[in-house]
Amino acid sequence: DAGVTQSPTHLIKTRGQQVTLRCSPKSGHDTVSWYQQALGQGPQFIFQYYEEEERQRGNFPDRFSGHQFPNYSSELNVNALLLGDSALYLCASSLVGTPNTEAFFGQGTRLTVV
Amino acid sequence: SQQGEEDPQALSIQEGENATMNCSYKTSINNLQWYRQNSGRGLVHLILIRSNEREKHSGRLRVTLDTSKKSSSLLITASRAADTASYFCATADTGRRALTFGSGTRLQVQP
Fold first, then answer.
1. Residues B69, B8: contact at Cβ < 8 Å?
2. Interface list for chain A against chain B, based on CB atoms closer than 8 Å
3. Which chain A residues are Cβ-neighbours of B90 within 8 angstroms?
4. How far is CA B1 from CA A41, A46, B101, in A?
5. pLDDT tens digit at each of 111 positions of chain B
6. What are the E-state strand segments in A1-114?
């Protein structure tokens, strides 16, 4: 049973460019959440998708957008990249209606903006 | 913004010793979870404790939760060099879907 998979593993982009990160949830999960983790910090919630809609959003600008596909996979898009967007981006999957169960995380995408 | 703080920020112990990490949070929660992270990679779930539970065990892990003090502790007994990692607490707040993480404790276990 595959867990949460993210691609790519590493990415280097130039300031001002746009980036798309991808996530496939754990089999049987229907909800995908995205987190940003700056170096030395804990992950910060970006947003969550369920039934192809954004259900909740953290304190991130509109440059951060996402999408969920019918197969529950998800993309995170970041426009007009800033140096401060350099971070590890983590995807987590879970099953809706099960608030007291764990979320499963992928290995992350390390984004470096130069 | 971070939900709360882990304490200590860093901890260095010898193999075989116990490691205790503390976590504080600010809001009402459904549950509190502890995760481990090796070298800035993905998070591995360790244990979940519900808001109506006070203590939970899993192998060498013991977690306590005090909702009146809005705090939790993670105890790792008989630590091993392989336990070297960063440990994060995360809360699932009442009425919210997101996990809110603390800033983490970096644990170093010396062989």
1. no
2. 4, 31, 33, 35, 37, 39, 41-45, 48, 55-56, 58-59, 88, 90, 92, 99-108, 110
3. 42
4. 11, 11, 9
5. 445 678 899 999 999 999 999 999 998 888 999 999 998 789 999 999 999 999 999 999 999 999 999 999 999 999 999 999 999 999 987 776 789 999 999 999 999
6. 5-7, 10-13, 19-24, 31-37, 44-50, 53-57, 64-68, 74-78, 87-94, 104-105, 109-113
